[in-house]
Specification:
Blueprint (H helix, E strand, L loop, with lengths): L2 E5 L6 E6 L2 E6 L8 H13 L7 H20 L7 E8 L3 E3 L4 E4 L3 E3 L4 E2 L1 E2 L13 E7 L3 E7 L5 E9 L17 H14 L5 H20 L9 E4 L3 E4 L5
Parallel strand pairs: 9-10
Antiparallel strand pairs: 1-2, 2-3, 4-12, 5-11, 6-12, 7-8, 7-12, 10-11, 13-14
Helix pairs in contact: 1-3, 2-3, 3-4
C-alpha cells in the first residue's frame, strides 16, 4: 500500500492523502482554529518585532481591530460555517428570532412543508389574508422578531439563517474565520493606518486578497459533489448532481 501526502491544490486548509490512487482530503492540523491571543502575537511580531501579546492600550485597540476584521469577514458573504437551522415555536402570529440571528438564507417552512417567503413589512398591503408569508422587524441591538401570515396557531416554523460570528470576547476564544491570516493582516493594516505608515496600502491589499480567496473557496462545490455539466429538460443546461 502506497501513501502520498500533499497539500490539496487551491485548499491550503486541506491535506490530500493518496492511498493506492484513492484520494482522501482531511483538515490539516496546521489550519486548526487559533485563539485571539495567537493572532495578536503574530500581528505583534510584524508590527513591533516581538512575538508576545501586546499589553495596555495596544492590547485593547488590537482586540477591537481583530473583532472588526471578523465582522468584515462575516458581512462579506453567506458562509456555510455561520449557517444554522432552528425551529421557531409560535404561540401567536409573532415570535422572536434567536439572539445571534443575522438574516434568513432560505425560504422558511412549517411542519407540512408549506413555504413562507420573506417580504418587507410594507408589502403586506399587496397580500391577501390567505397568503403565506413572513416579515422581519428589529435590529441587532434590540433583537429581531418575525410576523407570519397563514401559519396555524401553536405551530413551528423551520428557518435556516446566518448567525452573527463570535466576537472573541477573551484572548482564549477561537477565531471562526477559516483563514485567520486575514484577521492578522487586517489588524496589522489598521495599526499601520493609524500610524500613517506607508506600508498600509500594501498590507490592506494583501488582507483583501485573503478575503477574496476565502470567498472563492466557499463558492466552490464540495469535493464530493458531482461537477459534471448536464442537460436539463429540452433546452436548458445545469451544473451539479442530477436529481432523482
Amino acid at each position: 500500500m502506497g501513501i502520498v501526502i500533499t497539500q490539496a491544490p487551491g485548499y491550503p486548509e486541506l491535506v490530500c492523502h493518496t492511498v493506492d490512487n484513492l484520494v482522501i482530503y482531511v483538515v490539516s492540523s496546521a489550519y486548526m482554529a487559533r485563539t485571539l491571543s495567537q493572532i495578536l502575537i503574530d500581528a505583534q511580531a510584524y508590527l513591533d518585532l516581538e512575538a508576545v501579546e501586546p499589553t495596555g492600550d495596544d492590547l485593547t485597540v488590537r482586540v477591537a481591530y481583530a473583532q472588526q476584521a471578523v465582522r468584515e469577514w462575516a458581512d462579506s458573504y453567506q458562509w456555510r460555517g455561520l449557517t444554522q437551522k432552528e425551529n421557531i415555536y409560535f404561540t401567536n402570529a409573532t415570535a422572536s428570532f434567536p439572539t445571534n440571528f443575522k438574516e434568513l438564507t432560505t425560504i422558511s417552512t412549517d411542519a407540512n412543508g408549506n413555504q413562507y417567503p420573506q417580504i418587507l413589512p410594507g408589502e403586506t398591503v399587496y397580500k391577501t389574508s390567505s397568503d403565506k408569508y413572513l416579515y422581519i422587524e428589529g435590529n441587532e441591538a434590540m433583537g429581531f422578531t418575525t410576523t407570519t401570515n397563514g401559519l396555524a396557531s401553536l405551530a413551528t416554523l423551520s428557518i435556516t439563517y446566518q448567525r452573527q460570528p463570535s466576537n472573541m470576547a477573551t484572548l482564549s476564544d477561537n477565531c471562526e474565520v477559516p483563514d485567520d491570516g486575514f484577521v492578522i493582516k487586517k489588524v496589522i493594516s489598521l495599526v499601520l493606518q493609524s500610524r500613517s505608515d506607508e506600508r498600509f496600502p500594501i498590507v490592506e491589499a494583501d488582507s483583501q486578497r485573503l478575503l477574496r480567496n476565502m470567498i472563492g473557496r466557499e463558492m466552490v462545490r464540495t469535493p464530493g459533489g458531482d461537477m459534471k455539466v448536464r442537460r436539463v429538460g429540452s433546452s436548458g443546461w445545469g451544473i451539479g448532481k442530477p436529481r432523482g
